[in-house]
Structures are given as structure tokens and as C-alpha cells.
């Protein structure tokens, strides 16, 4: 293994020397002149004609290809002669070999994208249109580059498919009333599916559910019928409670006829408050009422005298 590594290193050095020589040696024709900028400064005399040698390391294009500043939220995945390096570079100043290295810059921040509006047929055969928002981030840059060709497009397409599959298995009432549970279910499925790609799906939000006009009118009628049913139930419960109280009052009046007489007198008093009304009662009944009231009054008076 050590011998193979030495041979590979020697081959790399030879190739690098050849590339440097190719970049350093330039043949200038008789009718051409080579103007050179060294570290940004113009040399006073142009080169040529003939064989001209320059310093390729000071070439601006070479420096731009060799030096890369990686931000705090970025990582640089490098392929050296087609082989993936074990660790991504960054953050900070990163130097690569321009000829042998190919770099891929990966953003580690949370990405939010809109899932295009999807037409879904629920389990009870109702057609609705649903759109959602998916939040994800790359936690393993190496897998995001090597395991999938385009992780952004793949995640978007997978989110659309998962959204249709999950919402097609529920009824309309569950879709309208249990959005949080459905969002959590979609998020778990997406997270499990994108984990081999080095992607973490943190949240999924169902943003809007659009219903056909006929279904909106049907739901409105259903809600109106439900409110009517509740009002009728409340009225029936009130009548039942009133009947219970009236039954108890009738039993009480039946056990105490004098209380019934007093109630009649109170009713007559309330009626007599109206000056323009004439109340006609049975004389015998009125006499009986007067006698009973007088006897009750006398009894109450005697009871008070005894206490004193």
C-alpha cells in the first residue's frame, strides 16, 4: 500500500510540474507582444517575440481558483482526481489545487421552499387543492453531494409525492380539523426518506386547503343544520326543566291548600294593579278565602303572644 501511494504521489508531482511548465512557457509570435501584470502591477517592457517564461503562481486566475473563503454556514466538498476527500473544508480560508481538485460548495442553513399547489382526492372522494411549506437543512455535506444528484430538486419532488400520498388517505373532515397531526406525519416520512441524503427535514406546514364552491356551500348548510339542532336541544332541555319545577310546585300546592289560596290572592293583587281592569270572582270562594286568611292571621297573632 505504501508503494502504491508513493507511485501515485510521484505521478501527481510530474503532472503538476508539466502543468506549471505549460502555464509558465509561452511562445510569442513575431507579430505579437505579451503584456504581463505581476501582482497587479504592469511590467514596463512587454515580452516577445520568441519563447517567454512567466511565473504562473502570480496569475490572477490561478490564485482565484486556488483560494476560496468559506463562510461560517458553508462547507466545501472537494474531489481530488475524482476521489472524495474524507472531510469537508471550512469555515475560513481554504486552499486547493486548481488542476486536480473540483470543489462543491454546500449551504448548511435552513432552507424553506413552497410545495406547489397539489390537487388531492381525499378518501371520501372530495377533490381539494393543498399547498405547503417544507423546512430542511443539510447536516452531512458529503452525503448531500455523493448520494443524490441534486438534493434540492429531489427533496422538492419527494415532498410533493408524500403530500399527495398522505392527504389521499384521510377524509375531508380530518384534513380540515387535524392539520397539525398531518403536518407532523408528513414531516416524519420526509425526514426518514431524506436521511440517507444527509438532509434533516425540521418542519412541514400545511398552508392552505382550497375547497370547491359546491363543497363550501354544503359545509355551510351542514353547519347551519348543526346550529339549528343545538338550539332545539337547548329549548327542549329548558322545557323539561320547567316541567320538573312545575310538577314539584303542583305537589307542594296539593299538600298545602292554604298556600294555594295565598298564591291566588297574590295573583289577584298583581292583576288589580291595572286600574282599568275589573276582576270578578266567586263570592263563596272569596268568602272562604277571606275566612281562611283571617283564621291564619289570628293564629299567627296568638302564636306571637305566647312567645312574649
Please, could you describe this protein's structure?
- The chain is rod-shaped.
- It is built from nine helices and twelve strands.
- It has five domains: 22-58, no CATH class; 59-109; 111-211, Band 7 domain (Tetrahydropterin Synthase, Chain A); 218-255; 262-308.
- With 308 residues, the chain is α+β, with helices and mostly antiparallel strands.
- The model has no long low-confidence stretch (mean pLDDT 79).
- The chain has a three-stranded antiparallel β-sheet with strand order 7-6-9.
- It has helices spanning 2-24, 60-66, 141-146, 151-167, 172-177, 179-194, 213-255, 257-272, 283-307, and strands at 25-28, 37-38, 41-42, 50-53, 67-70, 74-80, 83-84, 92-95, 101-107, 111-121, 127-138, 199-210.
- Helix 4 (151-167) packs across helix 6.
How many DSSP E strands?
Answer: 12
Q: CATH superfamily of the largest domain, called what?
A: Band 7 domain
Top-tier CATH class of the largest domain: Alpha Beta
What coarse outline follows from CA principal-axis ratios? rod-shaped
Beta content comes to: 15-25%
Low-confidence stretches: none
Number of domains: 5
- The CATH topology of the largest domain is Tetrahydropterin Synthase, Chain A
Strand order of the largest sheet: 7-6-9
Terminal-residue CA separation? 125 Å
* Tally of helical runs: 9
What is the average per-residue confidence, as pLDDT, rounded to a whole number? 79
Q: What's the alpha carbon Rg, rounded to whole Å? A: 47 Å
- Secondary-structure-based class equals alpha+beta
**Main sheet properties:** 3 strands, antiparallel
Residue share in helix: 40-55%
Q: Would you identify the CATH architecture of the largest domain?
A: 2-Layer Sandwich
SSE run:
HEEEEHEEEEEEEHHHHEHHH
